[in-house]
């Protein structure tokens, strides 16, 4: 399949992690010169990215930019291994606040000592000790990748007809979302999730500052959003403007 000259496509990457099927949705945006991947999944997922890009008609070898919405492990996981691919030179873009975490200069905000102890308790008892140790050590020494360029809102990146960077802090301090003007698509990252076909705010245990995250949703009202891609839950095709306005203004409990 040959992809159109200009486009956007949601990827579906599924893997069994700690005994549960976990599906995430990175996004591919491209034009004739540039192929951008938004977020890089968990560690070890390159083969899945290759296969999904092939399906979209965009060869993996054409990938030349990566935008990371934020530092969480399911967004930076395969970054170092993709950067090691010999065939291509890839520029990595992220917000300045997230940069030191992505580069491994600071410990990932959510991977605290307590969080690791908590996680250890929730792992299935039948999980082999080696696997348990490997997982905890991967979290203590998370994947790192160099960020080549910092981006901030409201930059317009001159690719695929224009991609607007929107700062949506709250889930993490430097979280960004992206607006692809041509398709009127918001790539929300983890600023929102989709569950049972409905759009929701990112749930509290994963969101550092829920109040700030909600304030971030308020500024989305200036964009003409028809489609939302959430990293967790995928596509939302309902009345996005109306739903986001509701989420932005509902009472926090
Ligand atoms: Zn996240």
Distance between the termini: 48 Å
The averaged pLDDT comes out at: 92
β-strand amount: 15-25%
Helix amount: 25-40%
Largest sheet: 6 strands, mixed
Q: Would you identify the regions where 5 or more consecutive residues have pLDDT less than 50?
A: none
**Roughly how many Å is the radius of gyration?**
18 Å
Strand order of the largest sheet: 1-4-5-6-7-8
Question: How do the helices and strands follow one another from N- to C-terminus?
Answer: EEEEEHEHHEHHHEEEEEEEHEEH
List the keywords.
16 strands, 8 helices, 25% strand, single chain, 253 residues, alpha/beta, 6-stranded mixed β-sheet, binds zinc ion
In short:
This protein has 253 residues and is of the alpha/beta class. 26% of the residues lie in helices and 25% in strands.
What features would you describe in this structure?
This protein starts with 6 loop residues before the first strand and ends with a helix. A hairpin with a 4-residue loop joins strand 11 and strand 12. The strands form four sheets. A six-stranded mixed β-sheet has the order 1-4-5-6-7-8, with no helix packed on it. Strands 9-10-11-12-15-16 form a six-stranded mixed β-sheet, with no helix packed on it. A two-stranded antiparallel sheet has the order 2-3. The chain is 26% helix and 25% strand. It is an alpha/beta fold. It contains eight helices and 16 strands. Bound molecules: zinc ion. The site of zinc ion has 4 residues, from loops.
């Amino acid at each position: 399949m040959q992809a159109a000259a200009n486009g956007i496509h949601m990827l579906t990457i599924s893997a069994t992690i700690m005994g549960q099927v976990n599906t995430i949705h990175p996004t591919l945006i491209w034009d004739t010169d540039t192929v951008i991947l938004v977020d890089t999944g968990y560690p070890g997922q390159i083969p899945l990215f290759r296969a999904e890009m092939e399906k979209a008609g965009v060869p993996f070898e054409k990938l030349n930019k990566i935008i990371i919405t934020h530092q969480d492990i399911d967004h930076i996981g395969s970054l170092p291994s993709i950067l090691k691919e010999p065939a291509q030179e890839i520029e990595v873009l992220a917000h300045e606040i997230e940069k030191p975490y992505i580069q491994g200069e600071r410990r990932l905000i959510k991977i605290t000592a307590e969080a690791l102890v908590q996680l250890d308790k929730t792992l299935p008892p039948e999980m082999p000790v080696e696997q348990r140790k490997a997982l905890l050590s991967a979290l203590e020494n998370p994947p790192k990748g160099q960020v080549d360029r910092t981006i901030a809102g409201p930059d317009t990146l001159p690719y695929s007809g224009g991609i607007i960077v929107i700062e949506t802090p709250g889930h993490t301090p430097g979280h960004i979302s992206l607006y692809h003007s041509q398709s009127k698509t918001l790539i929300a990252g983890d600023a929102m999730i989709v569950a049972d076909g409905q759009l929701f705010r990112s749930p509290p245990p994963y969101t550092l500052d829920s109040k700030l995250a909600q304030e971030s949703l308020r500024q989305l009202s200036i964009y003409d959003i028809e489609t939302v891609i959430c990293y967790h839950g995928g596509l939302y095709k309902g009345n996005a403007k109306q739903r986001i306005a509701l989420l932005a203004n509902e009472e926090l409990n």
